[in-house]
């Protein structure tokens, strides 16, 4: 679970950022990244997302390396 994202964050950019710690999964049916940016009812960005890694070992690495890091300087 990722928080504090800017309102204009895009899935591809988030996947690129999160890929520093491992492969991000793709949906086997659609081929889309397993990355979901949450939105408010009015359609504006909430600033939160979920990202699913291919290997569970990537999660603690991401927590260690990316926690409190800047998504975009």
Structure in a nutshell:
It is built from two helices and two strands, in the order H-E-E-H. It is α+β, with helices and mostly antiparallel strands. The longest helix is centred in the C-terminal third of the chain and has 9 residues.
Task: Round the mean pLDDT to the nearest integer and report it.
Answer: 93
**How far apart are the termini?**
20 Å
The whole-angstrom Rg is: 12 Å
* Unreliable runs: none
Q: Based on DSSP secondary structure assignment, what is the total number of beta strands?
A: 2
What is the 3D form? globular
Quaternary class: single chain
Structural category is alpha+beta
The count of helical stretches stands at 2
Strand content: 15-25%
Describe it.
The mean pLDDT is 93. The protein has two helices and two strands, in the order H-E-E-H. The protein has helices at residues 11-18, 58-66, and strands at 35-39, 45-51. The protein is an alpha+beta fold. The longest helix is centred in the C-terminal third of the chain and has 9 residues, at 58-66. It has a two-stranded antiparallel ribbon with strand order 1-2.
